[in-house]
Amino acid sequence: MNIQTAVLPPHAEMVRAMLERDTAYEGVFFTAVKTTGIFCRPSCTARKPKPENVEFFAHADECLCAGYRACLRCKPLDAAAVAPDWVQRLLSAVDADPERRWSDAQLLAEGIEPLNLRRWFKQHFSMTFHAWLRTRRLGMALGGIKQGTSIDHAAFDSGYESLSGFRDAFQKSFHITPGRAANSEPLLFTRLTTPLGPMIAMAERRGLVLLEFLDRPALTREVEALQNRYGYAVAPGHNAHLQQIEAQLADYFAGKLSEFSVPLHLPGSAFAREVWAALLQIPYGQTSTYGAIAAQLGKPGASRAVGLANGHNRLSIVVPCHRVIGADGSLTGYGGGQPRKAFLLRLENAALQLTQQLAF
Which N-terminal stretch is annotated as signal sequence (predicted)? Predict the structure, then answer.
């Protein structure tokens, strides 16, 4: 599975989409108007500015960090939390008929432009729609093999006429052969949308294993380590843990949730797990430092090691490494980017202050 940083469409195409209010680009980029200081969805019905007065951003948080305010008409922060209608309809159709093959002609018949679909899936899933569909079918085959389905039947049910073709595709996707799949641990993943951009969540039967922003540079290495070091077979899908984290993230960003209860499973070294456990003890709306955590663990000279373990945390937000700052009060590094770290700390601080005010 390859995770790549999202790339914006060509400038001319974004200008066209903005002027024509093209809904196909919902969630793909945001428009920010220099003369008004406001940012919008591409399809906003407000009067369109001159193209030379517009900046384009991939994520809503980038607009906020550049000093722009959200448009009150199109509510781009709300839009950042949902896939566009045409994508939702397609995903519902896939769920209803998972064995259906979608050609470009069929997509066009449903009013979906294949190029726009490819671009949206590349940004939000880091793979094309057809690659996602193929991996999803292989994931269903993986589940069948785990439950005792023969490899021949799994291959046929996945639409493969050649058993060798199925084996090759299976091993390419999951880094294991179908014969070893019965002893592997499926790690299901799904895309989640947030006001800070798309995230990927991965969970197995014991709990949530990974939650990261899709543009995190280390994401590819993290996924490969889960596959190669811990034997996971990674596939698109859903389970109760993924549903739970989706709901809890929505409440967190709405300022309604200060502590996550989704079960967690944290593969890693003993020391890394100690550090992650210490991160979980940092109260909502407060911060700590590498030195303080090292002292808490009884290893006052291990600040650097604590920093490394903190950077290897795979569960953004839930295991709150964003609450760790430098000894001088600086934000220091954050895998999701310092603008996101600042956003999360502001969100928690504001929600905490509001709760305290209501308590009096």
Answer: none
> How is domain 184-360 classified at the CATH fold level?
Arc Repressor Mutant, subunit A (1.10.10)
CA atoms of 56 and 96, how far apart (whole Å): 36
5 pLDDT tier (thresholds 50, 70, 90): very low
Active site residue 63: no
Separation of alpha carbons 214 and 267, rounded Å: 20
Which CATH class for the 11-79 domain?
alpha beta
d(C-alpha 175, C-alpha 83), whole Å: 30
Say if residue 63's pLDDT is above 50.
Answer: yes
Catalytic residue selected from 63, 264, 317, 321:
321
> Looking at 40, 133, 196, 272, which residue is catalytic?
40
Question: Does this chain's domain 11-79 share its CATH topology with 184-360?
Answer: no
For 343, the token pair is 């956003």
The helix/strand/coil state of 31 is: strand
Tell me the pLDDT band of 6, cut-offs 50, 70 and 90: very low
- The predicted-structure confidence for 292-337, as pLDDT tens digits, reads as follows 999 999 998 899 999 999 999 999 999 999 999 988 888 887 888 7
* Structure tokens given for 348: 């928690």
Structural domain spans, the chain: 11-79, 81-161, 184-360
